[in-house]
Amino acid sequence: MQEDFLHFLWKYRKLDAPGLRTSCGQSLFIIHPGHHNKFSGPDFFNAQIRLNDQLWAGNVEIHVRASDWYAHSHECDPNYENVVLHVVWQEDLPVLNAAGYAIPTLEMRKMIRPSALESYRTLMKLRTGQFINCENQIAGVDSFLIDAWKERLFFERLVEKVSQIESLLQACNGDWDAVTFLMVLQSFGSKINKENFLEVGRRIPFYVVKKVQGDPAKMEAILFGVAGLLNEKNPVDPYYQKMHDAFEFLSHKFNVKKGTRKEVEFFKLRPMNFPTLRLSQFAAFWCDPAHNFNTLMSEYRYVSLEEMLVSTASGYWETHYLFGKESDRKPKTTSKAFIETLILNAIIPLKFAYARYRGLDRNERILELAQSLKSEKNRTVDSYTDLGITSTSALDSQALLQLYKAYCLKHRCLECSIGHFLLQDK
Fold it and tell me: What is the pTM of this model?
């Protein structure tokens, strides 16, 4: 028996309510179970109960065994002096308060409905080879409930991303343009190079970014140089040498240091995702005056955002993927799939964070934008699809990733709307 299940039973009143009695025979009626406390202190604050004909307001503490009260040294903790009811699975000994009086105790194992206990045991029994605990039951969950839960999960995942933006905003002294520069640059690095690209951005003072913003070639040079891609002279390749010399000049002028803690990665990347191309594409995007912060934040139509985020690497890269190595001519333009990833990982989090910062509610528009993006394809989303939980948009796929990472992997079924549905009385 797990204590979190006892919390669930108490919080949602999954007990045989008629005829509840404490271990010493007092009749018990739960007026309000209290507010669930997930930090230190009693498990439920400000509960309201009636013992016989006496009303009580105070805290409720829950344990698997009554003796856990002493195992956790609650008898010495003043935070537990206002406990009016001790809820346990098994009362293996009486518990006394600081004044030496027995604390009223409810022994749950005598009160729980057999159907609730069986549902819990079935749900929490993860069998070998199973993807998630409820994989044999999830197909029967009401689709309306799942859709509503997906929306909550989507915003829960967004809130986690916003924490990074808030940290960057503080580091950038409240400059939203600087934060946008860093977030979009990070997203151009995709999964493999996102941390490298973010470090590149943080090593370039933003006043320098603004100084070179009108010249894509200078922007490329400073990005390549800080990323450690211009470390050697190469007179055989005129473009490389031009970038090298430009960075040497800019780095001395603005005291910008080259190199990051970790080299940018090329390994396991398709050529169109090479950091050389992505940095050049980002330079083209950032240096376009039409791509200002206010425009990005005010536009919620996917078609318009796609037009804004299309960027093409400079002319040299039409015949190169790497410095000094020629290839067949091909314009290196951001793809539709890449743009959707940028919107999902950078633009939507920025919109959500900025709306919260200004005290505005843009949730519906953000939902509509996420629904206009294609679902991500990965093993986790595919596994849910195999169980009958469809993913038709980025909203769905982001929600399912959050469900798996934050709930299913951690067996937080009792905090999940799907788990609640499966544990309801049949």
Answer: 0.84
